[in-house]
Every structure is written in C-alpha cells, then in structure tokens.
Design a protein that fits this description.
Structural class: alpha/beta
Mean pLDDT: 79
Strand content: 35-45%
Low-confidence stretches: 18-28
Helix content: 10-25%
Oligomer: single chain
Strand order of the largest sheet: 1-2-3-6-5
Amino acid sequence: MRSIRTIVPLALVVAAGATAAPATAAPAASSALVREYEGTIVSVNRSNRTFRLRDSERGTVRIRVTRNTTFERIEGFAGLKKGMRRIEATVRRSGGRWVAIEVERSGGGGQHGDDDRGDDD
C-alpha cells in the first residue's frame, strides 16, 4: 500500500512536467541497493581484494572489499580465510559488483537469559 502512495504522487509530478522528484523517493531507491549476506567463506582472492561467501538462503556471492570497508571481530581483509563460518557482510551494489560496507564475524551468542550451566549461581 505504501508503494502506491509513493508511486501515484511521483507519477503526478512527472506528468505535470516537474524536474525534481520528491524527497521521499530517494531513500527507497538507495535502500534497495543494500543487502546482507551471512554464511561461510568459500574462497579469498587477495590480488582482486574479493571473497566469495556462501549464504544458505541466497547462494554464493562474490564481494569486493575497499579501503572504506569496516571489519568487526576480524583482523581486516587479511583476517578472512577460506572455511570461516558465521561471516556477515553488509554490501551495496556499485558498478555491477557487490562492495562490502561492513564485514563481521557473528558472535554466535544464544546463551542469553536462562541457561543450564549452573555456574552463575
């Protein structure tokens, strides 16, 4: 329903011959270009600064790393190794490629709240 509310006013503006698009259209377009992948590293190409990540839901994707890419719980691009699991990558589309905005090793967690270890009493 929201997309109809955005498309109809946009069509009216274009039909009226206006040259500027409404400000609400820009965020929707840019957010569609950002995706998140999570999985296991299949390979790392050091010379091209790329790695391939196998996401169980979306398949394998090639991701490029730039100097603007941030890393969490990984020692930069050099810390990426084939076979690493629980790697999360937030990427954007640029020049026909997926470029990493952020790459991190998932914490795994799962032990929040009640646990049966018995060592915290």
